[in-house]
Amino acid sequence: MVLMKRCLDFLFALAGLAVLSPLLLAVAALVKLTSPGPAFYMGVRAGKGGAPFRMFKFRTMVENADVIGGSSTGKDDPRVTRLGVWLRKHKVDELPQLINVLKGDMSLVGPRPEVLQYTREYAGEELLILTVRPGITDLASVAFSRLDEALGREDPDRVYEQQVKPRKNALRIQYVKEHCFLMDLKIIFRTLGRVLFGS
């Protein structure tokens, strides 16, 4: 199962990068042209076994946004650029993570990678989350497809830590316990449904 999943991840990531390369290049150029700073944001996240890695995303916020504010992005966060709003809404900012899948840092489907600040606090069943490769999408991604709205405008870090994180971790644990090829397919189709149709 693990070897087959890795082989499929590699093949789909390679094909995806080949097919989407014109779009990825165009978006990278737009990010550079519309706001100062690099095209990519490479935040440190916890991978399998808790090992840190740099996760590729198109930059959707102003440069040094992590210095200006917290790690959670609430509704109408002023740090998000105009282009970034569109990229986030349509999940285009996540496409560069196909590079992470190709490298073996991530899988197409698996628990969404978390910042080290939170994974260091894992205890009990939460440690199961770190036994598999993190993914581009998972059950929590579908449930919280509009995370900014769930966090609201007031103190999104507090809302995330107290209300959202426990629910996301429960879904991550559920995935680790129940995941199979059929579940992965369902999550992929549900993710596409959220992105394309909002449902």
Oligomer: single chain
Number of β-strand runs: 4
Number of helices: 9
- SSE pattern: HEEHHHEHEHHHH
Please give the alpha-carbon distance between the first and last residues: 30 Å
Which blocks of ≥5 consecutive residues have pLDDT under 50?
A: none
SS class: mainly alpha
What does the main sheet amount to?
2 strands, antiparallel
Q: Assign an overall shape.
A: globular
- Average pLDDT over all residues: 91
CA-atom Rg in angstroms: 16 Å
Task: Please report which band the strand proportion falls in: under 5%, 5-15%, 15-25%, 25-35%, 35-45% or over 45%.
Answer: 5-15%
Number of domains: 1
Indicate the percent of residues in helices: 40-55%
| Strand line-up of the largest beta sheet | 1-2
